[in-house]
Write the structure tokens for this entry.
Amino acid sequence: MNIVVLTGAGISAESGVDTFRASSDPKRMGLWEQYPVEQVATPEGFAADPVLVHHFYNLRRQALATVEPNPAHFALAELQKGLAANGGCLTIVTQNVDDLHERGGAKDVIHMHGELTSTLCSACGWRWHNLDDLSVESVCPSCQTRGGPRPDIVWFGEMPYHMDTIEAHIKACSLFVSIGTSGAVYPAAGYVQMARALGKQTLEINLDASDGSHFFHESRRGKAGTLVPEWVDEILGARDA
Ligand code: NAD
């Protein structure tokens, strides 16, 4: 069985990583409501105030050390191993820039919006693994340009990574599953329609109804930390039966 899972900020919410928009829990304010998206997640915002943008992503990168994968991350890693043992495949495509899938044991995670643990030189295109804070004084280790390094994050208006690879995986899968994403950010939000057009089965697991819920064959409402392990047990149980 070949499955493609698309994850969003909701899968990391129970680990303590803030989501993009406010959740249905009024006590949790959406991360980006504290910082206007135009300022911290666009190339124009970075050009206008790189000090603020570096500060924002330095805080996000530092916060990785304070969070742990939750049962949803671990369950997907278990599903990946279980399917591979039987000649199948689970491809995890994530919009998340955290590293919780990897720390939960998942392999070959496709980060379509970049990664907090990666830095990109805007001068020469070099990218490297980096956990240190960045500033306007940071120097690219490849071309030595001061101020070249930027967070390796796909900002609004930039092209997401690995689009061709993701489309190929969706074409090759039998089931497409969306977990913890509001379905508001394209092109990720359009993958369910692509999967439907190709005749794939589709499932959504999300706390609230998303913008794209009506596109899915089935929608399950609740917390990823509970529903994802239940769904993984169903898949692996059906395989073992
Ligand atoms: P979003 O914040 O727009 O939507 C999150 C969705 O998750 C909501 O529909 C919400 O109902 C749901 N949700 C919240 N808690 C949940 C839980 N416990 N279980 C299941 N669902 C839950 O997030 P998005 O759709 O991923 O779009 C956000 C964009 O911001 C992405 O492009 C991403 O790159 C970026 N982002 C990433 C992170 C991260 O790396 N963890 C965090 C915030 C934002």
Remarks:
- The pocket of nicotinamide-adenine-dinucleotide is lined by residues 8-10, 12-14, 17, 19-21, 23, 31, 95-98, 113, 180-182, 184-185, 206-208, 210, 223-224 (CB under 6 Å).
- The chain is about 35% helix and 20% strand.
- The chain has two domains: 1-17+69-113+160-241, 18-66+114-153.
- The domain at 18-66+114-153 is CATH 3.30.1600.10 (SIR2/SIRT2 'Small Domain').
